[in-house]
## 1
Amino acid sequence: MSADDNAEAKHIDKMSRIKGLIFSNPVEWIHLFKVAINTFWCRYVLRCVGAGSIVGGKVNMINPSNIRIGRDCLILDQVYMRAGSDGYIHVGRDCAINSYAKIFGHGGVVIGNNAQVGPGALITTTSHDIRKAMKAEFKTVTIGDWAWVGANATVLPGITIGRYAVVGAGSIVTKDVPDFAIVVGNPGKIIGENEVAKAQHG
């Protein structure tokens, strides 16, 4: 076999392997393509996502000019972010917003670095006062560095969650959460501390 024939055989073998990978799981490749398109769109067109961040499929950002996501973040499929015309959503670097999470930033949401928001979690900044003809009220939510909001948890308007704090799955946070605290339940109650994080960073 000549050198040209050998090179052509290697090329054909490489193409066969690539086709095999694509056709072995076409749904996954289609999904990855959508993720690439969404990430490009959010970073270079909407200009609301930092370098190295990845934006999943069917992520919905309302008022993206008021949304800022730092570098190296992961925004998974079906996340919904609504900043509002006068609100904002600011996410630090190295954060993860998991699938089906909803963030309403009409009153402002600030999420620190390395924080995580679990799948299906709700962060809202809007409430209504029944004594004032249901007039909308907006209060800022702040989530500290390295904090973790568990799956399907709810963070109500005006809440501050401290650094390294943990909110358990399904919890409803009605009061501020101190640094390193672990909160679970409805309403959320402190049941302990993130001892490992406190020993290292307290």
## 2
Amino acid sequence: MIANLIRWSVQNRFLVMILTVLFTLWGVYSLSRTPLDAIPDLSDVQV
């Protein structure tokens, strides 16, 4: 199964690269549109 996926990816390099760029841009766009309240504060608690 993995070998078939790797073989297909190597045979379709251009498509894989385009999809990678599109998903990366989509992720950056989604992150920039996420409201600040939706991102949890992971800093240490200070009293």
